[in-house]
Amino acid sequence: MIFDQLKNAHLYFVISDRVKKAFDYLVSTDFENLEPGKYEIDGENIYAIVQEYDTRPLTSSRWEAHKKYLDIQYMVNGKEKMGYSHKNKMIVTHEYNEGKDALYLKGDGNFLIAEAGYFAIFFPSDVHMPCIALNLSTPVKKVVVKVRVDSTEPMIEPTIEQSNETEQPVAETESVVEEIKNEVEPTDKGTSEEEQF
Question: pTM surpassing 0.90?
Answer without folding.
Answer: no
